[in-house]
UniProtKB/TrEMBL annotation:
<feature type="binding site">
    <location>
        <position position="228"/>
    </location>
    <ligand>
        <name>Mg(2+) 1</name>
    </ligand>
</feature>
<dbReference type="GO" id="GO:0000287">
    <property type="term" value="F:magnesium ion binding"/>
</dbReference>
<dbReference type="GO" id="GO:0009045">
    <property type="term" value="F:xylose isomerase activity"/>
</dbReference>
<comment type="similarity">
    <text>Belongs to the xylose isomerase family.</text>
</comment>
<feature type="binding site">
    <location>
        <position position="264"/>
    </location>
    <ligand>
        <name>Mg(2+) 1</name>
    </ligand>
</feature>
<feature type="binding site">
    <location>
        <position position="292"/>
    </location>
    <ligand>
        <name>Mg(2+) 1</name>
    </ligand>
</feature>
<dbReference type="InterPro" id="IPR001998">
    <property type="entry name" value="Xylose_isomerase"/>
</dbReference>
<dbReference type="InterPro" id="IPR013452">
    <property type="entry name" value="Xylose_isom_bac"/>
</dbReference>
<feature type="active site">
    <location>
        <position position="100"/>
    </location>
</feature>
<keyword id="KW-0479">Metal-binding</keyword>
<protein>
    <recommendedName>
        <fullName>Xylose isomerase</fullName>
        <ecNumber>5.3.1.5</ecNumber>
    </recommendedName>
</protein>
<keyword id="KW-0963">Cytoplasm</keyword>
<feature type="binding site">
    <location>
        <position position="267"/>
    </location>
    <ligand>
        <name>Mg(2+) 2</name>
    </ligand>
</feature>
<comment type="subunit">
    <text>Homotetramer.</text>
</comment>
<keyword id="KW-0460">Magnesium</keyword>
<feature type="binding site">
    <location>
        <position position="264"/>
    </location>
    <ligand>
        <name>Mg(2+) 2</name>
    </ligand>
</feature>
<dbReference type="InterPro" id="IPR036237">
    <property type="entry name" value="Xyl_isomerase-like_sf"/>
</dbReference>
Length: 431
């Protein structure tokens, strides 16, 4: 035991507690025929929780962690602390990048050796912990070699290095029985068109993703391959801007039935959308997979990766998730970090516990709205005309035939209220 968290006991559900614990998140509470834990499938992000030093664009490290060093001893201690926290939170899942868990070696082989040692430690710890791997991924953006991207890089050596890294991480995810594998294109985009061949870069990304899918089937990995949409950060334009952009990319390269999306709330906002919009769009296109749960500071205009605290926003997101059939093999990953002034170990636990409570409240509100049915009845009523003839037949006609219906039927359409305020009032009854 590292004793990083001192004598803090595992957190429990107690609606009356005034101490560190869960006031709303009851893992065993039944909602729509399923345990709350199985609906939410919470995951702890290794990178922000254990690897982030507390810097921002104008200032450096504020956190002092005993494992903050580029040694294997530090990496082992980090793993000890991580699983202690997973157990305190009773977390079902965690997620990691390769660079989060091991120090960078002087060569690829040395980095691989370090990585394999830590994933072996994970496997051993998972024998006695309830926490499982939601997904693994590769960090193909932090090191300076990736300054021009990974799969879209103009240097074929970087492309090859990236492929080797993804293979390593996929092998580890498979060995650890991960539920999914994520590709996060942190720098798959461009800063200026003056030195960019758009078609070549996108073709290379398409080929790279095809290799990943082929390898998934080769090794018998049963989890989903997930792409994470991300707009304009850090590059001027990213090829995986939002859910619709990703779907167009997948269609172009014949991968729309092989790859799903991992949607982050903060990225949705940066793309000019709401979280629920991106989830609903992914469900409509048949590519919804999983979510990263966080929020942005709406005044900063940047991806601040804060823990969620807005129940109405979260309720609308889970409403779309439940309406689409739930998270499936996906989960609710807290891709969120402490504020750089939140220095204490207890802050790390309180942030996750509070976020889990917020999500629990949002989920319960979403389930209640679905079971009430008022929103869905209003939606069905708005489109009821399409359930009758000749509307159904009209969808099979050509343009001239449809135009003829207007004259033949003396059609004179009159506007009908969209009832937006009434629907918003319905939502507010539950949140």
């Amino acid at each position: 035991m590292s004793q990083f968290f001192g004598d803090i006991a595992p957190l429990t559900f107690d609606p009356d507690t005034t101490d560190l614990g869960f006031r709303h998140y009851n893992p065993d509470e039944m909602l729509m025929g399923k345990r709350m834990e199985d609906h939410l499938r919470f995951a702890v992000a290794y990178w922000h929780s254990f690897a982030w030093p507390g810097g921002d664009p104008f200032g450096g490290q504020t956190f002092e962690r005993p494992w903050f060093n580029e040694t294997m001893e530090g990496a082992r201690l980090k793993a000890d602390v991580a699983f202690e926290m997973f157990d305190i939170l009773n977390a079902p899942f965690f997620c990691f990048h390769d660079a989060d868990i091991r120090p960078e070696g002087a060569t690829f082989a040395e980095s691989e050796k370090n990585f394999r040692e830590i994933t072996d430690i994970f496997a051993k710890k998972m024998e006695t912990s309830k926490t499982r791997l939601l997904w693994g991924t590769a960090n193909l953006f932090s090191n300076r070699r990736f300054m021009a991207g990974a799969a879209s890089n103009p240097d074929p050596d970087v492309y090859a290095w990236s492929a080797a890294t993804v293979k390593l991480c996929m092998d580890a995810t498979h060995a650890l029985k991960g539920e999914n594998y994520v590709l996060w294109g942190g720098r798959e985009g461009y800063e200026t068109l003056l030195n960019t061949d758009l078609k070549q870069e996108m073709d290379h990304m398409g080929r790279f993703l095809t290799m990943v899918v082929d390898y998934k089937h080769k090794i018998g990995f049963e989890g989903a391959i997930l792409l994470e949409p991300k707009p304009q950060e850090p590059t001027k334009h990213q090829y995986d801007y939002d859910v619709s952009t990703v779907y167009g990319f997948l269609k172009r390269y014949g991968l729309e039935n092989e790859v799903q999306v991992n949607i982050e709330q903060g990225h949705a906002i940066l793309a000019g959308h709401s979280f629920e919009h991106e989830i609903a769009m992914a469900n409509a296109l048949g590519i919804f997979g999983s979510i990263d749960m966080n929020r942005n500071d709406y005044q900063s205009g940047w991806d601040t990766d804060q823990f969620p605290n807005n129940v109405p926003e979260i309720a609308l997101a889970y409403y779309e998730i439940l309406k689409g059939g739930g998270l499936g093999r996906g989960g609710t990953n807290f891709d969120a970090k402490l504020r750089r002034q939140s220095l204490d170990p207890e802050d790390l636990l309180a942030s996750h516990a509070g976020a889990m409570d917020v999500c629990a409240r949002g989920l319960k509100a979403a389930a209640a709205m679905l079971e009430d049915g008022a929103l869905e009845r209003a939606r069905e009523a708005r489109y009821e005309g399409w359930q009758r003839e000749p509307a159904q037949s009209m969808l099979k006609m050509d343009l001239s035939e449809v135009a003829g219906l207007v004259a033949e039927g003396n059609i004179d359409p009159q506007p009908r209220s969209g009832r937006q305020e009434i629907l918003e009032n319905i939502v507010n009854r539950f949140v």
